[in-house]
Design a protein that fits this description.
By secondary structure, the chain is α+β, with helices and mostly antiparallel strands. The chain contains two helices and three strands, in the order αβββα. A hairpin with a 2-residue loop joins strand 1 and strand 2. The longest helix is centred in the last third of the chain and has 7 residues. It is flat. It starts with 7 loop residues before the first helix and ends in a 9-residue tail after the last helix. 6% of the residues are buried.
Length: 77
């Protein structure tokens, strides 16, 4: 499969934030384009940690980012 070159327009479309959210079985990694928490900030309690990604890391797959930036320690009930 051929890879196409990333243009400046494509770079703007890449997710800017790497986020760990509270999942059903522990922390889950996600990539977000903006830190928009939605109406009434209902997502805020679900966010455990976030990091604005440098431009050079925005193209990396979620699995690579999860290895590079491990999840925060979370207390279990």
């Amino acid at each position: 499969m051929a890879r196409r070159r990333t243009t400046e327009a494509d770079a703007d479309d890449l997710p800017r934030y790497f986020v760990w959210v509270r999942g059903l079985e522990g922390p889950e990694p996600q990539k977000w384009t903006a830190m928009d928490f939605g109406i009434g900030d209902w997502k805020r309690p679900l966010v455990l940690a976030y990091l604005e990604l440098p431009e050079g890391e925005r193209h990396l797959p979620l699995s690579a980012l999860a290895r590079r930036y491990p999840p925060p320690r979370v207390e279990t009930l």
